[in-house]
TrEMBL record:
Residues 461-704 form the ABC transporter domain. GO terms for cellular component: membrane. GO terms for molecular function: ABC-type oligopeptide transporter activity; ATP binding; ATP hydrolysis activity. The chain crosses the membrane at residues 143-166, 186-213, 274-300. The keyword ATP-binding applies. It comes from Nepenthes gracilis. This is ABC transporter B family member 26, chloroplastic. Pfam families: ABC_membrane (PF00664), ABC_tran (PF00005). Residues 146-427 form the ABC transmembrane type-1 domain.
Amino acid sequence: MALTVCDLQPRFPPSLRHKQSLSNARYVTFHFTLNRNLHLPLSPFLPTGSRLGDRRFHPVKFTSVDGLSIQNNPEHRELQQAHQNEELRERLRSLFETFRSILPGGSWWNLSGEYVDVVTASKPVTVWRALRRMWQLVANDRWVIFTAFSALILAAISEISIPHFLTASVFSAQSGDVMVFRRNVFLLVLFCVVSGICSGLRGCCFGIANMILVKRMRETLYSALLFQDISFFDTATVGELTSRLGADCQQVSRVIGNDLNLISRNVLQATGALIYLLILSWPLGLCTLAICSALAVILLRYGQYQKKSAKLTQELTATANEIAQETISLMRTVRVYGTEELELGRYKLWLEKLASISLRQSGAYGFWNLSFNTLYHSAQVVAVLIGGMSILAGRLTAEQLTKFILYGEWLIYSTWWVGDNISSLMQSVGASEKVFQLMDLMPSNQFISEGLKFQRLTGNIDFMNVSFYYPSRATVPVLQNVNLSMTPDEVVAIVGLSGSGKSTLVNLLLRLYEPTDELVLLQILIDGFPLKELDIKWLRERVGFVGQEPRLFRTDISSNIKYGCPRDVQQEDVELAAKEAFAHDFITSLPNGYKTVVDDDLLSGGQKQRIAIARAILRDPVILILDEATSALDAESEHNVKGVLRSVRNDSRTKRTVIVIAHRLSTIQAADRIVVMEGGQIVEIGSHRELLLKNGLYARLTRIQADAIA
Ligand SMILES: Nc1ncnc2c1ncn2[C@@H]1O[C@H](COP(=O)(O)OP(=O)(O)OP(=O)(O)O)[C@@H](O)[C@H]1O
């Protein structure tokens, strides 16, 4: 194991500072937390005697001097004793520090220090703002909310009346007043029935409102994400976004169905109980109110803490998801490089952080419960004490005190419920911050305005002095002053070293990236019109694209070939396209033929490319872009497929504009023109023969590839 000097953190008792034996020592042994002993010269670590007692030196124990163990050497026994004393003091100090830190307000509860790195700069959402946003989402179905709240009010009034009639019934029976007893029992039964029915209705309506909220929230969020620029997906990860759509939306959904429902019910009941208590006995009522106010202050602090911890939990969950998603999607690489343990460790690290937050949340919940219980029992003791004295003084009857105790209990419990649900509400509001932030993202510029659509697209393409850099790397120019024109019926091949900007050129043509400099979109012309002015959906319907690593959806082969096809197609069309892409034979050899469900992992690279090529052929595009689209095909298939791609289009009997990006230079020799790129610039243009005669980069690359084959 390699250890650097930074790893060496010796620990010396202060008393060693003056020991001649140590000052003269040349070698010391350090016992590491790694359970390894290392003999090292003392001097580099102890340049002056004053460093010996430095408390920053923690995890390493000083065990011997010049090879003599401190334990066995009488000369050093005193040093050992001092060392042990110091260790004990250190332990006690750390125990005391730990105890102090876990008391309310202590450093252990601080969430912003250790985890500050995961808290993103999302705009804090206040409870009102979050509720307003939620209301906007469910406003169309406001009748559900209104019904729910009406039922809630009726249920609360009924429930709060029950203890009164319960006590009144008992005491009227005791007094022998039959009429009053009958009336009280009748009202008691009535309120019980109303409370039961209304509670059921309330629960059902709030449940429906909840479902509507989650659905709309997910719809809005998903639609906001789908219309983002591709550069957004370069920075946001799949794990994070799916976490927002899944867990965070679910958490936010508790607001209506659970939190608001229970908060409203309990606030109503607590208010009713308080009024009743004040009417019964105002001194007793004020005492109970004081206890409830203390409870409310504690619950407010607790709620704020829960909001903060919920936000952290949400961020940590998203990061853990991100890691799991990345590892699972790269499982083959993980397996080949044997990094399962490493990946497990990476995941566990975030789980531990999550657990640590949960621990604090549970601790805070414990403190909250402790406060509640203490205050609850204090209220009972106060009621019995003051109430009992009032009975003795003849100012209160036993019936009144019984009612008081019942309603006092009700008030405290309602306050507790409100607190509990406010903390849950705060958690949901905390979780909503990132969700609302994503929901507020404006769609990419290309979806905002509707552009031009022509009767017919011809397929003329012009790049006029185009320079471009990716938004995520604003200082690195990827394309510089690119001038290039392509005409219909032409096959243009783009070649060049890796990273020279070939794919970027077609990314811009497909408008996958919105350049920060809008001029770029005016410098790319399609049939003489700037790309910026064209309707992008209309244009994309007329473009076929096969990328370097085609991805398939987890559905049957037929649907994968039909995917995104702008016209109605029959199964025969699908099979024809598959035949032209030389995919038909392997598809029919699969167990369910065209109905075989595939995904990215169930087919070979070449088979996936053939399906992607069939998809492009089926669209019958005016402009066809092949970015390393046949790299995984065998030579014969590649030759045949290329022929088909150049062939006559179905409708207009004209050829299409074909752009081919290829590294295998032998496959593009027949192209009408070959464009050679280097460092984001076009350095050569011409036919295969012309470029060979030029003896430039293309000729050099061709020679290198020929040598490699030879
Ligand atoms: N999304 C992106 N964000 C930032 N930089 C990018 C992005 N995509 C590509 N680049 C950078 O732009 C440069 C050109 O990349 P591009 O993919 O166009 O090269 P290429 O010639 O197609 O390479 P290859 O032949 O390997 O596919 C590279 O330096 C690359 O790192």
